[in-house]
Write a structure and sequence with these properties.
Blueprint lengths: L9 H4 L4 H23 L12 H20 L10 E7 L6 H4 L6 E6 L8 E2 L7 H11 L7 E4 L16 H6 L3 H7 L1 E3 L19 H5 L7 H9 L18 E4 H4 L4 H13 L4 H15 L7
Parallel strand pairs: 1-2, 1-4, 2-3
Antiparallel strand pairs: 4-6, 5-6
Helix pairs in contact: 5-11
């Protein structure tokens, strides 16, 4: 009876292309699903707990401290500074003590962690304090302060021995007239450790050689660091520890800026860990700044 009757599909009856029909169907299905979901779920507005008076006060205190730090670290141009205080710091170290020495000493603090409030930052932190020291000299070579003290970031240091263990007291005892006359002063007066001789570049011990200690490589390190031949390597090296010293601008400029750039490049590329690099500089800062190998 119905053998000649042809049934048509919805797309044929409505003259809708198959692809478009699928899109329409998907949209309709999505709307239905959304309506069903909305009917079974109670929408609740977000609730925010108001801050307590204590929390508001704490937030204000933090903002105030940060603003004060930015203001304190507004680093002046070294050319206009008589006495600069240079150091590196990690985020966990507190250097507020250094800013309390202003205006006598102007701090130049290099952050190793790009900490907010410290505009001077080290891109590559190797060699402990050495990277901050060299970076300050390189960046400000043409406009160095009259006097610069290079120190560690800690308020208290076991190796401070003049005026006690506190760095501000050590700096108070520093005689600027003596510094002006000599050009370089180690901030430690006790000769132990470091003197009379701490390194023998030509005679490393069997233990140093066996353990691949840095001491066993000192001849090559010395030649690379100072770009000299083997004949210039001293037989003995000795100076009071511990990488804290003061310099005049004239003493720093006894070396060309290119020497300091080469030394920093050496630190960034040598196959030593950061402690080893820092140790090498600690043993040789006095030579870098024109003192005798055994001081």
């Amino acid at each position: 009876m119905h053998s000649n009757l042809r049934l048509c599909s919805p797309t044929q009856a409505l003259k809708i292309p198959p692809a478009r029909f699928r899109n329409v169907a998907l949209i309709a299905l999505s709307i239905v699903t959304l309506l069903l979901f909305a009917g079974t779920y109670r929408w609740a507005p977000a609730r925010f707990r108001p801050l307590s008076a204590k929390e508001i006060a704490e937030a204000a205190r933090v903002r105030e401290l940060e603003q004060a730090r930015f203001k304190a670290n507004d680093v002046p141009h070294p050319r206009n500074v008589s006495k600069a205080l240079v150091m590196g710091k990690t985020k966990k170290e507190n250097v507020d003590w250094a800013y309390k020495l202003k205006p006598d000493w102007i701090p130049y603090v290099y952050s190793t962690d790009h900490e907010r409030g410290y505009p001077l930052a080290l891109e590559n932190n190797v060699g402990r304090e050495a990277m901050a020291y060299l970076t300050f000299i390189i960046d400000n070579y043409a406009a160095l302060p009259e006097y610069t003290a290079f120190v560690h970031s800690g308020f208290e240091q076991w190796h401070n021995d003049v005026g006690g263990i506190y760095t501000p007291e050590t700096l108070k005892e520093l005689r600027i007239e003596t510094l002006k006359d000599r050009g370089y002063l180690n901030l430690r007066c006790h000769t132990n450790p470091g003197c009379p001789t701490s390194l023998l570049p030509w005679n490393p011990t069997e233990t140093d050689i066996k353990n691949h200690d840095t001491r066993a490589r000192l001849k090559q390190i010395y030649m690379d660091l100072f770009r000299v031949g083997e004949e210039s390597i001293p037989r003995e090296i000795g100076s009071a520890c511990c990488a804290q010293f003061a310099l005049t601008r004239e003493r720093i400029r006894q070396r060309p800026q290119s020497d300091y750039i080469r030394m920093r490049d050496w630190a960034l590329n040598v196959d030593l860990d950061t402690f080893g690099i820092g140790w090498v500089f600690e043993m040789m800062w006095h030579i870098v700044f024109g003192q005798k190998a055994v001081e």
